[in-house]
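Worked example 2:
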Amino acid sequence: MTDKNRLDPFTNYTQQRQVMVSVYYPAQPDSPKKLLEQQPRGDTWPHTIPYMPPTTAALYDELVVPLGFPNNTLEQISTVCQENAPFRDESTAYPLLIFSPGGGAPRFFYSTTHEELARKGYVVAAIDHPHDALVVEFPDGQAVIGLNKTLTRDEVELLVKVRAQDMSFVIDELSHQFPTKINTTAVVAFGHSLGGGTVAEATLNDTRIKGGVNVDGRMFGSMEKPNLTISTPFLQFASEAFSSDPYLRWDEEWVRLLGWKMELVLRGSAHSTFTDLPLIAEALDLPEKLGRDGEILMGKVDGIRGLEVLVEYVSAFADFVLTGKNGSLLESNGNDRFPEISVKRHS
């Protein structure tokens, strides 16, 4: 997608801002079932596509191989979904969740979360932010390499502002491209790490975003300025490893949230628990090999269980925001279905 009304500050304002987006949506019954219910046919799954495009996979392999993953891991794996399948119901305007990944991370690292949310009835638009992600590949073969440097405070603020503008632009584009299939008038935004900070920034500036989910992230940009607050519902989802980290400023952020709010902690989780890395490691029988370093990176939570927890809570929050249904998962005393989740605070 190209924003013809915005120049990209990371090109010294010489080029129009472009983003890459993956759109996951409920497909007709021929599409795969829920991940937990699927069974391969022989040695193959019914519908698969490459996990990442080749250049992206090769560059991110350079990051995960030193952690103990085999060579070419990301170039060899696939994800279970279909491309260009028909919508499940052509007459329905599906609710929209818009997603921003962690700093430097690709949208692909969260593919299973997005696929499972789509199977629950949501359209999920996952964004790659060029010059932030290590690399962003476009269909014409262009590859935008990330800044790959330690950012100053001012640069982080600019990055969060641009990311938030990317979110609003993608909502605009989806409203034009799918006017009858996607409801873009009431949206829930969610993001991981720096993406969580992006969600807060976007929520401040886009009234179509009716609720936000910050997964283990810190708020930057406008939310660091005095007296700025968010009145829309907000879910803070923390890893156990980061739940007491003063850098993430959980207490300072809490008082800035004036609407319905809840802060959850997933016991045994680490920052990357909320990505696909635990699932990939388990599929390759790596957890024992990765040892303590793997636990620090990905936590102790089973990959499928971590996926289930995140998907169920994000969807429960989205249902609450968009339809008013306040299910048992959002009760202040927690839920017996997920005893590993503790409600740190709620109001």
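DSSP finds nine helices and 14 strands in the chain. Confidence is low (pLDDT under 50) at residues 31-42.
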